[in-house]
Amino acid sequence: MNHLSFFSLNDDPFRLTPDRDFFFPAANHTALGNALRFGLDQGDGFIIVTGEVGTGKTILLRMLMSDIGRQFETALLVSPQLTPKQLVMAILYDIGLEDKADNRQSLDQLIRLLNDYLAKLAATGKRLLIIVDEAQNLPDESIEQLRLLSNFESDKHKWLQIILVGQPELKKNISRPHLRQLLQRVTIMETLNPLEEKEISLYVHFRLNRAGRGDIRLSKQSRKLLWRYTKGFPRLINKVMSRSLLIAYARQQAIDHKVIKEAAASLHLTRRVLPDWFPLPGWLFTVTAFFVLLASVILLRQVD
User: Fold this and answer.
1) How far is CA 83 from CA 38, 124, 139, 141, in A?
2) What is the CATH number of the domain that holds 47?
3) pLDDT digits over 222-275, tens only?
4) What residues form DSSP beta bridges with 163?
5) Is 242 helix (H, G, I), strand (E, B) or coil?
């Protein structure tokens, strides 16, 4: 008996590899997915998606790609530290033109090859969607090359659309003055946030159900600890829960708050400090604002 069968599971519920069958429709993820589909339906401009590592950007993209198959051909670039020529080559390879694309060809020749492909694709009523993951690593000249590629169009329609996905610094990168022409073409810019505290229990049980339900119930104390150690980042939740399964199996016991705490410690997780961009809960913001105002009033009276 392994640790999965011990908990009456027939699959690994907390695998780290993105799996569409385990996609949890959290509120922010669902809203962002709808925004992406709206942007693609509009058929114009760049779409920017940012989020911290482990928030679920990759699985969201895979869900999107599976939903739009009839409207688009897709080129997914996952190693974007590319020169402009390497970028165009990567696009051509991903759309199946590797037999026609030769590294000995010039950039202009490769672009003409892509242009011919786009024209033929448009004649079938489809467009090309280029998705660049980890786009915060793109060199400026390659970002500019993408902007130039976005000029391909007929009298009525754009022939391709581009989604740039990356960590929060991507927004800063494209906001620099010398890239303002690209920024002007951005029609949608969204941020993928971690799960809310109230969603963590739903997330865990959703994945357990996908893996065969399993004989696992988290106490309120366990859920609180899971929030404190992960702050809602799906990847961290998966890591802590996966390690908890192993620890509990080794001891032939249920998962309780002590197991959660030990799992987090073994992963070198402490009670996480919220990143700068993370929004404060409404009540905490109100209390903080009150005490700041009170301190200001006291200080002014002392000055008087």
Assistant:
1) 31, 31, 7, 7
2) 3.40.50.300
3) 999 999 999 999 999 999 999 999 999 999 999 999 999 999 999 999 765 444
4) 47, 131
5) helix
